[in-house]
Amino acid sequence: MALLQCNFVSETLEISASMNVIIPQGEKRRPLKTLYLLHGLSDDHTIWCRRTSIERYADAYGIAVVMPAVNRSFYADMAHGAKYWTFVSEELPRLARSFFPLSDRREDNFAAGLSMGGYGALKLGLSHPDRFAAVASLSGAVDVNRLVAEGFGGDIKNIVGDTNSVVGTSIDLFALAERVADQSGSPLLYQCCGTEDFLYEDNIRFRDHCRKLGLPLTYEEEPGDHEWGYWDLKIQKVLSWLPL
């Protein structure tokens, strides 16, 4: 495996942006199946490599892993900030495929993430079911409605602006799940959360919502908190779960 830090200019963000990329060596299985692996609120593009053995885990599956930096954006086109949703959903895949031998086929593309990144991965899959075969959320911040209602610091105001509700909007995972359920071809969904995690109740609500809609959801829970020991174990489960 090759681990590369890629610095490039993002026209969408109008800044120099960064991503870490894991690429299998050799000529086999190209173009490559690709996992877009997303970081949490307090992290950056280096965190998965620093806190887990993702390079070693990915090697066993011959899969490329793209890990972008999106700051504290919640993978949104921010009300007071940059267009990180446009960046991660449109510009990033296009640029990554121009730099590296990555497949553009739906069946070869996946997304996963932790906390804020779990939200981002589900948002990618539910917003673009034609582009992703499977998406996974680890301890995801899945209920943005609650975060807005409870005034989750300055971050939420920067993301959604001066509003008291985002119910039914394009950043509401519950609404996105309903729209996908009304169509055909939902990506496979994987969701896990530790029972001691502060986001556990949010995850239970989203799990029950997806089950009621009949979406193809695999849900797992066990004792665990919002921490890297748990995510290091669960990203291995995600890789074994992906339809590779």
Automatic annotation (TrEMBL):
Cross-referenced SUPFAM superfamilies: alpha/beta-Hydrolases (SSF53474)
Annotated keywords: Hydrolase
Alphabetical list of Gene3D superfamilies matching this protein: alpha/beta hydrolase (3.40.50.1820)
Transmembrane segments: none
Any GO MF annotation of the entry: hydrolase activity
Protein name: S-formylglutathione hydrolase FrmB
Lineage: Bacteria, Bacillati, Bacillota, Bacilli, Bacillales
